[in-house]
Amino acid sequence: MFLQCDDNHLACLLAIDGLFLLNLFYTYNDQPEPLEVGPKKRSMAQDIMMVENQIPFIVLKEIHEALYSTSCSSSHSSNYRLTCSIFQTFCKIHSPLKLCSNSEGPSRADHLLHYMYFKIVNNVRRVVKSQEQPHEPQPRPQPHSKPQKAEEIKPQTRILEATYKLLESIPKNEIVEAYEQTISILETFCQSDQPVTPSASTLHDKGGFRFHGMEEDCGIKNIRISGTDVYLPVITLNKDSDVILRNLIAYEALTSKSTSFPLIEFMVLMCALVVNVDDVKRLKNVIEGDLEAEEVVKLFTGMSSCLPATKMEEKSKMKGVIDEINKVYNSGLRMRAYLLLKKFAQWLLMVLRAIGGFVGSSWKIVAFILSLVTVVLLTLQAYCDVYGCGNKKARSH
């Protein structure tokens, strides 16, 4: 529409919108805290925070100076020189994440969205590195090996012989059907990759992880992990938070120099952590606001599909935290058993596919492979009996 307007029409539109914004920001700044924000203001904030609706701060400054050049009796005459700190109260109320202090705020800002983004990303506590030693996963207990006697081996041998004889007696068609079912099961299992980061409830229930909200002066760059304790910035989600977060992410993707995407990486982590209502409960110390648990899940699951892909030359601190979470989680006894079983499954799938062309004529080979599957399952059962891969105690490693 702007491209079809002449300069005067465009200036008129910017003047009207600029006057509206100046009045809105002054209203926010003049009211005592805590300021009550109803549904109408939440809805209005969504429109104001859109990337395409940003009015340059220099335009607001020109309008402000024009007003005071004709009227010096205004109640705001002491604030003749407009600074970007006029955005502070509005951003503090509507920002989903905590902002940095005024002393660390930007000296200049291109527009409102730029100001809020800067205040979020630069909310960093300068701390001295802790002397605490990093958490090391406990070594896996070694089973006591005892010399096996001939009598102990005989039952296993009889089981294998009985399994082979049973497979020999099965008709060819049933063998082929069992082969195809085995292929299907192995393919499904091998394709069920673990997500980049397990959900919060999975990390808590299977890995013993706990999630803590950090203080106000700690932001997304202060995220850290200590053992199974994960420290995240508090995020406040209200009716306008979805739109505001999406536009902050869009602004970062549009303006970043491809060297740092802190907000996008933080949202990738949060979208991985929150996939169901149980995850929201586990993150009760991190997620605040007026949204119900189902709405929080809807927000993150909807956002996960539209996060832009990022490619950085160097590994970021956030990526290091994600890798550390996965490392601690995968070092657990249950995950070691899962990964071991998955390697077995991938190997068996490769072997079964290799002999797939002989199924019609050499079905006895398939019977042999299926007997090998039985041996692997028996091995897995023995492993679980020794290490307790299905035991709840594995979570407290």
What does this structure look like?
The chain has 3 domains: 94 residues, no CATH class; 102 residues, no CATH class; 124 residues, no CATH class. The C terminus is likely disordered. Helices cover 55% and strands 4% of the residues. The radius of gyration is 30 Å and the shape is elongated. The longest helix is centred in the last third of the chain and has 25 residues. Helix 1 crosses helix 3. The chain is built from 15 helices and 5 strands. A 3-stranded mixed beta sheet has the order 1-3-2, covered by helices on one side. A hairpin with a 2-residue loop joins strand 2 and strand 3. The protein is mainly alpha-helical and 397 residues long.
A few lines on this structure:
By secondary structure, the protein is mainly alpha-helical. It contains 15 helices and five strands.
Global shape: elongated
Distance between the termini: 63 Å
Number of domains: 3
> What is the count of helical runs?
15
The low-pLDDT segments are 130-134, 139-153, 390-397
Largest sheet: 3 strands, mixed
What is the topology, as strand order, of the major beta sheet? Answer: 1-3-2
> Secondary-structure element sequence?
HHHHHHHHEEEEHHHEHHHH
Q: Give a count of the beta strands, DSSP E runs of length 2 or more.
A: 5
Helix content: 55-70%
Q: Overall pLDDT, averaged? A: 77
How much of the sequence lies in strands comes to under 5%
Gyration radius, rounded: 30 Å
Strand-pairing-aware structural class: mainly alpha
